[in-house]
Amino acid sequence: MRNAAALRHIGGMSFASRTTRLPRPFEPDLGAEALAATPWAEGDVATLIEGTGGTSPYLQGLIRKEADWLHAALDDPDAALPALFAELDAGAPDEVDVALRQAKRRVALLAGLSDLAGVWTLEEVTGALTRFADLAVQKALQAAIAREIRRGKLPGATEDDIATAGGMVVLAMGKMGAFELNYSSDIDLICLFDETRFDRDDFHEARSAFVRATRRMSGSLGDLTGEGYVFRTDLRLRPDPAVTPVCISMEAAERYYESLGRAWERAAYIKARPCAGDVEAGERFLETLRPFVWRRHLDFAAIQDAHDMRLRYRDKHGHGAITLPGHDMKLGRGGIREIEFFTQTRQIIAGGRDPELRVRGTVDGLRVLTRTGWVPQGVTEKLTEHYRAHREIEHRVQMLRDAQTHQLPSSDPEFDRLAALCGRDRAELEQDLKRRLEEVHELTEGFFAPDAPCETDVPDEIERSELVARWPNYPALRSGRAVEIFKRLKPEILGRLAKAAKPQEALAAFDGFLAGLPAGVQLFSLFEANPQLIDLLIDIVSTSPDLARHLSRNSSVFDAVIGGDFFSPWPGAAALTAELKEILAREGDYETRLDMARRWQKEWHFRAGVHLLRGLSEPEEAGEHYADLAEASLAAVLPVVQEEFARKHGSAPGRGAVVVGMGSLGARRLHALSDLDLISIYDPDGVEASDGRRPLPARQYYARLTQAAITAMTAPMAEGKLYEIDMRLRPSGNQGPVATSLASFRSYQSEQAWVWEHLALTRARVVAGPAPLAEDVEALRATLLASPPPRDKVLGELATMRARIAAAKGQGAVWDPKIGRGRMQDIELTAQAGALLSGQAPRRTTRGLAMAAREGWLSKADADHLAATYRLCWSLQIGARLIAEGALDPTELGAGGCAFLTRLTGTDGPDELREKLSEMTARAADIIDAALPPPET
């Protein structure tokens, strides 16, 4: 059986063997004329030429004019275009106008026949048309620039600059940018030049030369001569076209988009692509526009922007019911533009966060939107099928007379002609068209104009509340657009507030959130598109006024909720680290990387809190989640700091440095407000200094690198801080260097460290840095703790430490789960003593208590009670730190906050919680007192 490759080379059959459909002649006499011009045609090829020539006056003329070339082209259609392009590319510049028009005829003829016969897919047809457009623009531009250079009008340019157009680039916009040109498309271009290639005094002369070249290029492409035309060119997509020249500097364009760029221009740049001239400069320019096109946060306001654009198109072009005669396949109801807007708007919403969405093609866009969870598979399959069908009908409408139209014929004879060109029965074609248009409209309309919220019964005491009455004066409702969106949301919000356990408390909490919100359009748009977020917001603000205030200042954290996997199981430290490293690798600027890390950390921090709030994680798990997040932040950010530091001072001398997590981070038990206890250990490995432009001695290098890392983590930037850092647990505390060499650390811990420092070392854990050094530090820790001091010494020191803490901090407040006798800190110190005396140094508090029982200085029952008390205190601690920043007072939390804390602690209310806390901690204090000797006075 012959394969497809073999069939392509059988003369007269290569094209026919791939034919899947054929037109029929609407005017048989004209079809006969086309056949007479191609006596070599036979079989399906003859039927194709007869049907095409007998239906499309435009294609009939091309067949008669290019019959000889067509004969050879159909022998191997896959090779015909590359050969045509190569011939055109090699042609003389002074003959470009004629050569381009001849090539246009041949490309149009071959693409038209391949489309009508089903030999090429839609993407192959539009790709061929677009590749020819790219080459045509390049040849016309080079000829125009060459003329300016040879006349000496482009300052400093030589013949060598013709290939890159002397620093000028042409951006293909719209369908050309996406390789989606339609059959009779004009081409939308933006022409720019790189002003940095010219001295200031030469700027105006260079700009004049580029303007002349642009006009000449446009004329070469668009002027109608005896040979026809190549492409109608539209240069009006450039910034402010009414007052700017046809070619402007990149710097001027960048300033325009930064300050005045509009929503439709953002959408246009999704498909922008350098197609001719200095392509590298064009790519750099598009990279500078990335923040303008792709917003950092989920941009649900883009939905309204797109809806407004659609309404403007409707007003201009009409958008009534689908009656097929005269219906606009592009701009009409259910047309191509609705699919494009549906796709592009979703890309704009999330493309700033997910670079995978930054694709130019419509079908490609739908595919990636499904892959990333934004569009259901079934919707993508239907819209893709309808898009391709719509585009094919659009092509056939244009093939009839080479008209740049998207409207179905208005008269019966012309509709019959279209059906003939499609090779279909008219009634069946009309039925299929109407079905597709209606289904596209149904699939896309709900996204842009969702049904208004149903009417909700809201009690008068809520709806007429003084709090609600003052909302219009809040900053978030200053703009008319915000007011318009919020007006649609308000009944839904009030209705859900009315259903809260204590509506007035919930209303007051929501009021606090709204009052602190600096702007509302983005967030209100997000709520309108994702009404389930209103429930989440009310849940949060009803439980935690403090968290609500945080949300009002950082509402972008809601972006993560609709990412598709917000409520999925926690991924763990390794996956988080890999994700953040990938995000930071996309950015080149140091400050931007740090801001991206902060934004990412805020979203995951928010996720950890919501999981705890919603009961998706238990207090023990949530503590590990916060610790995973801190570890991932350190592991991903510190290499970025090292890279930046090395630019000036060279690579780290020796084996590098590791960061050791102490305290709660080392034990993997953090809460929402935890700072990080860290120490830095480095190993110069005999290397005395770095090797950079400004080398530093090893000790100074690592000290300054550590300071840079602390700054990176703690400096308040646009996105806030990452973490507060505490390094007082390093050798010699605040008096010692911020970074300690491995040798010094070993010596200090072996010869000088106090018992309390060895107690602290039981929870130490390397959280970032090179693996070989991390392994050595962990091995050193194990060695240091393998031979513990005598029990009497450790327990005596512990008793003294407890007395000093009590003298310094008192017994703690009634509701303080951390400070005080028998509370978290007290139990942790006891567990650390158990861990130290075991010689095995487990990090977890419960394991340390179990070791104390095994060693015999605590009974198992006592160890179990201390562990149970610790779990109770921790549950209260992690819950309290999520919903209140200051001292805990249940009387000020409200019903939601109290219910949250009592759920975490397994109690029935604040009174029972207080009684249980008091009883369990009192007994815990007695157990610890009995296990330790009297403190030294």
TrEMBL record:
Keywords: ATP-binding, Ligase, Magnesium, Multifunctional enzyme, Nucleotide-binding, Nucleotidyltransferase, Transferase. GO terms for cellular component: cytosol. One of its GO terms (molecular function) is [glutamate-ammonia-ligase] adenylyltransferase activity. InterPro entries: GlnE, GlnE_rpt_dom, NT_sf, PII_UdlTrfase/GS_AdlTrfase. It comes from the Bacteria. The keyword Metal-binding does not apply. GO terms for biological process: regulation of glutamine family amino acid metabolic process. Residues 314-448 form the PII-uridylyltransferase/Glutamine-synthetase adenylyltransferase domain. Coiled coil: none annotated. Residues 54-287, 536-775 form the Glutamate-ammonia ligase adenylyltransferase repeated domain. SUPFAM superfamilies: Nucleotidyltransferase (SSF81301), Nucleotidyltransferase substrate binding subunit/domain (SSF81593). PANTHER family: BIFUNCTIONAL GLUTAMINE SYNTHETASE ADENYLYLTRANSFERASE_ADENYLYL-REMOVING ENZYME, GLUTAMINE SYNTHETASE ADENYLYLTRANSFERASE. This is Glutamate-ammonia ligase adenylyltransferase. It comes from Salipiger bermudensis (strain DSM 26914 / JCM 13377 / KCTC 12554 / HTCC2601).
